[in-house]
Known about the structure:
Layout: H1 15-40, H2 43-55, H3 67-90, H4 94-100
Amino acid sequence: xxxxxxxxxxxxxxxxxxxxxxxxxxxxxxxxxxxxxxxxxxxxxxxxxxxxxxxxxxxxxxxxxxxxxxxxxxxxxxxxxxxxxxxxxxxxxxxxxxxxxxxxxxxx
Length: 108
């Protein structure tokens, strides 16, 4: 098996290696943000995101009296919070639209 560039040991003291890693991370971030913007730009994409957010239980109570269930539910909610934060940070106005716009077609 041929080693890939990602298999090599990263040398943080090497300015060129740091620059390569930084640029790769910036490209990945731009790609992720572009993809998120594309998904939020369509009604279908917003419905999908709303379904995912609903699946995390973000807007539901997480404590039922069972600690193990609460821990599990809080883990799911954490993912929902992360998703909403990303949408809010990178797609101005879309988070509120996804969560609260009742004029969008049904998300159920």
